[in-house]
Amino acid sequence: MEKVIITVVGKDTVGIIAKTCTFLSDANVNILDISQTIVSGYFNMMMIVDVSASKVSFEDLSSGLDKLGTDIGVSIKCQKEEIFDMMHRI
């Protein structure tokens, strides 16, 4: 399993979850866990996904999500699990 952490942050609007999940589905990326909150009109979502069955490279996935975020007015970032873990280690 190849896990990737995806974060989505921005002003809340209709379709953020749907468009992000559709993009991931089209790339054959499986969502393992998802958490989202809206605080004072600001949307925040964190996803853990499995990219092992995807035919899309990590670089293409990352740049595609970045473009999608720009198109829908949010910031979408993704990191490989091992990098995320190293960055958040105490």
The SSE string, one letter per element, is: EHEEHEH
Oligomer: single chain
Number of strand elements: 4
Strand content: 35-45%
Features:
single chain, 90 residues, alpha+beta, 4-stranded antiparallel β-sheet, 4 strands, 37% helix
Report on this model:
There is one protein chain. The protein has 90 residues and is an alpha+beta fold. It is 37% helix and 39% strand. The chain has a four-stranded antiparallel sheet. It is globular, with a radius of gyration of 13 Å. The mean pLDDT is 93.
Short description:
The chain is an alpha+beta fold and 90 residues long. It is built from three helices and four strands. A hairpin with a 2-residue loop joins strand 2 (30-39) and strand 3 (42-50).
List the topology elements.
Blueprint: E1 3-11, H1 16-26, E2 30-39, E3 42-50, H2 58-72, E4 74-80, H3 81-87
Antiparallel strand pairs: 1-3, 1-4, 2-3
